TrEMBL record:
An annotated Gene Ontology molecular function: protein serine/threonine kinase activity
Locations listed in the record: Membrane
SUPFAM superfamilies membership: EGF/Laminin, Protein kinase-like (PK-like)
Domain EGF-like: 292-326
Annotated function: Serine/threonine-protein kinase that may function as a signaling receptor of extracellular matrix component. Binding to pectin may have significance in the control of cell expansion, morphogenesis and development.
Catalysed reactions listed for this entry: L-seryl-[protein] + ATP = O-phospho-L-seryl-[protein] + ADP + H(+); L-threonyl-[protein] + ATP = O-phospho-L-threonyl-[protein] + ADP + H(+)
Pfam hit, one: EGF_CA
Taxonomic source organism: Forsythia ovata
Keyword Repressor: no
Protein name: Wall-associated receptor kinase-like 9
Length: 750
């Protein structure tokens, strides 16, 4: 493959006086230099090797053992290459241990950082290239998998990405480590297709392309020779800067590197450092000092009969006698004075007429603006009254504590926060309205819900709900900050939760941070405790009425928070249910509520039971791929429970990570929550307590001795969950015998 040179630099041209200007075919601009006296410091010292023809420049001081050949130097980047440093390789099987190497690029502490123009290319079959990256402030990683779908006829030659080759980008940073792993054990392959695989770091795109042959991977002795040559022209791109300080810290110090007529610019905040640029109207090397550009030597500055006069950083044009103007081609130019006099009277008349016209237009415009402003104000007042604003003010006067918890936002504030409710700010849409992400003037990120039209007959109830929800203080309930009543439909302002919905994390199989069984159990406990709080710990019981995994948000620490109280209702203490139109989400609806239209606290319990099954199985609440009978997840789960075949429906990750007794207990609890008879369902308080007991048992697992095949399970009485159909039977105060050891996780109902 012939190497194609990167784009040439024509920005920095000068070197330090008395120093070598070029090494071979490459110009070395200051702060780089050949020799320590010709560079800004040791890190910019270029070694010009005379043992090649033409001579080759090398970068030595990078905190690594490698020396890099310098391909090009631009205003912001330096292109280098060292095929050994850029290459990772792994050969599997006996005798190949010495043919394995990881690529580690470490520039931390130097003025260089890996540019995001680089990519990692991995070639091989059933191999995973793992990336570990660090910068001064952040750590991250990534990777890609290269595989061959047809093991009997793998593609021999190709381009990347494609069969046998994958590619992934990297982030800017000072450290990168690439390691290769064999994935054949995951795919149950008996034999490795090719003995070796490798990954290469470098700039790929319009300037560097390549083709590869997989068949070379069966000959490890030729890999370094063949692929080093193939990738020889692919450079590693490094961002460079004058290190350690930013412009504010360094401008008044003796170490300030910017020369005369130049200015300082900060580089990436994560990497630190700064660079210098020539001021406008100047050119040259900003580290040695920039000189004035004589614009008068350049064409098309002034009109042909004008006079150009250069000035420091700028220029002026003047007109000859009998003309006036700025004399510039792209300005007014030069206008004859006589032409101006001949048109002066006409201009005066036109000016007076235009002035009167402008005065009339201006008056009309301001009258229109005044009328429109007054109309908008009246309109907002009407909306405010219609949406219950007067009632809310009355509530605030009655209880001043509400004022501290319920903020009344103006529509202007929220329009500014959402860029006039721009569609790009939409983060969710549902049956109750649209949710926008916004930023308030003080910088606080919020979620703004634009509700659908509300019935004017329910305004009092709506305001009571706003006041009620604003006073809910629970770590697992999304906080309502306030509302805006100046619009046609009310706007509700909530705290913003950054990590998305529980549904997304359950269903996203490629999630970089998958939910472990311990996390799922903790989330279940948190949601159950929040619902129990709403049902029994508030001044009036609150029924959510739309409990589902998309209404459970996770914050940056994966703490669960219940959201979307759009159809929630509070009820009087002496009532047990609400009789309403059936509302909710199919798949989570309580069948009893669906038939009777009477929503009770047990209806929320049923919906939570579906969420609990989602956590156990990783499946969606409704599946169009199933038969009519098994379309609902709740039905499929209950059928598996009745068939004593729980493991069939459990998420493989949950099955692998969870302990038998924990999974059985949680599954039985979900089964009770989904009982078609609401009276036989537990309360949310009981659900929360039982889930917490299961979770606490994890921390005390060392006190439990589990033996299979005629074994006994030692637990305290508190671990037992009372249920007539529970598979464990108590034989003494502290011993529980298992009746299903031969078939783990199969549950027997009697």
């Amino acid at each position: 493959m012939a190497a194609v040179a990167p784009p040439p630099s024509n920005v920095m041209e000068s070197t330090k006086p008395g120093c070598q200007r070029k090494c071979g075919n490459l110009e070395i601009p200051y702060p780089f230099g050949v020799g320590s006296k010709c560079s800004q410091n040791q890190y910019f010292n270029i070694n010009c090797s005379i043992f090649s023809n033409p001579p080759k420049p090398y970068l030595l001081h990078t905190y690594e053992n490698y020396k890099y050949e310098v391909v090009n130097i631009s205003e912001t980047q330096i292109y280098v290459k060292n095929s050994n440093a850029q290459l990772s390789m792994a050969c599997y099987g006996e005798g190949f241990a010495n043919m394995t190497q990881n690529s580690t690029l470490d520039f931390i502490g130097s003025p260089y950082a890996l540019s995001d123009a680089n990519q990692v290319t991995s070639i091989g079959c059933d191999d995973l290239a793992m990336l570990e990256q660090h910068s001064n402030l952040t750590n991250n990683g990534g990777g890609c998998a290269s595989y061959c779908s047809d093991i009997h006829n793998p593609v021999g030659v190709g381009s990347c990405p494609g069969m046998g080759c994958c590619r992934t980008s990297i982030s800017k940073g000072g450290y990168l480590r690439v390691k290769l792993f064999d994935m054949r054990s995951y795919w149950e392959r008996d034999n490795k297709l090719f003995w070796c695989s490798f990954a290469f770091i470098g700039m790929i795109g319009d300037y560097y392309k390549f083709n590869f042959s997989l068949y070379h991977l069966n000959y490890p002795t030729t890999i370094l020779k063949y692929y080093s040559k193939e990738f020889m022209g692919m450079p590693l791109v490094l961002d460079w800067s004058i290190m350690d300080y930013n412009c504010t810290q360094v401008q008044n110090s003796l170490d300030y590197a910017c020369g005369k007529n130049s200015h300082c610019i900060d580089m990436d905040a994560r990497l630190g450092g700064y660079q210098c640029r020539c001021n406008n109207g100047y050119k040259g090397n900003p580290y040695l000092g920039c000189h004035d550009i004589n614009e008068c030597e350049e064409p098309n500055q002034c009109v042909s009969f004008g006079t150009c006069t250069n000035s420091p950083g700028s220029y002026n044009c003047s007109c000859p006698d009998g003309y006036y103007g700025d004399g510039k081609i792209y300005g007014i130019g030069c206008i004859p004075v006589q032409l101006a006099h001949s048109h002066s009277k006409l201009a005066i008349g036109l000016g007076l007429g235009a002035g009167m016209g402008l005065l009339l237009m201006s008056s009309t415009f301001w009258l229109y603006k005044f009328h429109k402003k007054r109309k908008d104000k009246k309109r907002k007042e009407n909306f405010f009254k219609r949406n219950g604003g007067l009632l809310l003010q009355q509530q605030i006067l009655t209880d001043q504590g509400i004022l501290e918890k319920t903020q009344l936002f103006t529509v202007k504030e929220l329009e500014k926060a959402t860029d006039n409710f721009n569609q790009s700010r939409i983060i969710g849409q549902g049956g109750q309205g649209t949710v926008y992400k916004g930023m308030l003037s003080e910088g606080k990120i919020v979620a703004i819900k634009k509700s659908k039209l509300i019935d004017e007959n329910q305004v009092k109830q709506f305001i009571n709900e706003v006041v009620m929800l604003s006073q809910i203080i629970h770590r697992n309930v999304v906080k309502l900050l306030g509302c805006c009543l100046e619009t046609e439909v009310p706007l509700l302002v909530y705290e913003f939760i950054f990590n998305g919905t529980l549904f997304d994390h359950i269903q996203d199989k490629t999630d970089e941070f998958p939910l472990s069984w311990n996390m799922r159990l903790r989330i279940a406990v948190e949601v159950a405790e929040a619902l129990a709080y709403l049902h029994s710990a508030t001044s009036f019981p609150i029924y959510h009425r739309d409990v589902k995994s998309t209404n459970i948000l996770l914050d940056e620490k994966y703490v669960a928070k219940i959201s979307d109280f759009g159809i929630s209702r509070s009820i009087a203490m002496d009532h047990t249910h609400l009789t309403t139109l059936v509302k909710g989400t199919f798949g989570y609806l309580d069948p009893e509520y669906f038939q009777s239209s009477q929503f009770t606290e047990k209806s929320d319990v049923y919906s939570f039971g579906v969420v609990l099954v989602e956590l156990l199985t990783g499946q969606k609440p409704i599946s169009s791929a199933k038969t009519e009978e098994e379309r609902g997840l709740a039905t499929r789960f209950l059928l598996c429970m009745e068939a004593e075949n729980l493991e069939k429906i459990l998420d493989p990750q949950v099955l692998e990570q969870g302990k038998r007794k924990e999974l059985t207990a949680v599954a039985k609890l979900a089964q009770r929550c989904l009982n078609l008879n609401g009276k036989k369902r537990p309360t949310m308080k009981e659900v929360a307590m039982e889930l917490e007991i299961v979770r606490m048992s994890q921390t005390h697992s060392t006190a439990c001795e589990t033996k299979y095949q005629d074994v006994q399970l030692h637990k305290s009485k508190a671990i037992l969950i009372s249920d007539d159909n529970y598979t464990w039977t108590r034989t003494s105060d502290n011993i529980i015998q298992s009746s299903s050891d031969a078939h783990p996780l199969k549950i027997r109902t009697v």
